[in-house]
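Morning!

This is the sequence you dropped in the shared folder:
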Amino acid sequence: MTKKVLFRADAKQSIGTGDLVSLIHLSRYFENDGWESHFIIRDYDESVEIVKRNKINNYLAIIGPHSIGKETEEINGYIESRGIDAAFFEITERPLTEYKGVTNRAVKACINFDGIIPDGMSLVVNWDVGTDKLFDQKKYPGTKFLLGPQYAVLPLDFDFTRIRNRSYKSKPEVLLVSMGGADEYNFTQKVVDALIRGKTGLELYVVVGGGYRHMEGLAGSLKDSGVKYRIKQDITNMFDEFMNCDIAVSAGGLTSFELVATRTPSVLIAIHEHQIGRCEYFDKMGWAKYLGFRSFDEKKLLEGIRDPLTRLPNAVFKTREIKDYIDGIL
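The structure's back. Tokens below.
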């Protein structure tokens, strides 16, 4: 009998798109081993766009305002009616402990970054740095914790043979700018403006997500700049973009882990507080250069681009262990 896994996450400008995107990546590991994936989302425009773009067929969009109690009823009804075996939650809009009474019919797991987890979770995953101090693991003897950057959810189809054989040009030509799916503070524009003023001579390849709301201004400034550029929106898999650029400027979200995994010379800016620790860690490990939290020194940005890291050590990731643990208890 086919096993079924449910993922519950959202995406919108105020919380970003990483929650939902990371669970879509994780779902591919389950599907690759014969599982059937299902999603429950709120009917935010960004959430619906992402599931459609990623060709998610089995999903429920909860329409309109719902109380936590009503939403929990929807989740329980879906789990019971569809025969769900495992359910993953990644909700940063509110503490997971507010979701009281989620059925025990399915094995429950969560991606959690605030350290507040409800009882009954069989698995907790957090890929930030220093998270062993965030959770009082003794309080949850029945819970498995997979903690640390090695458990970041990478896309299934990353080609690690190609990554190991990656070579670097003596003089960079293409600079990728990717500041997050929603980029609510519009750091894409701030970085692009600094690069235009810096006259780097590089082609700018700017990638924005479905939640980006400043496309007209961005396109206008680039059009009048005299800089060679490309803009793309809503790319479902960034692997080729990482491998075909020479250096990247990125926020500290999920993309920063993918840049490290692909050994892409990178300059990072933390946009949210939880990104600071990982950016500092990546800098310490020699995987990227970190400029600061919600601000950057334009001179240091340009220095980081003109003198990029090119001897990048391999980073080890263990995304598959997340799926394997759930498999092992079912």
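Headline: The chain has two domains: 4-153+318-329, 169-306.

More detail when I'm at my desk.
O.
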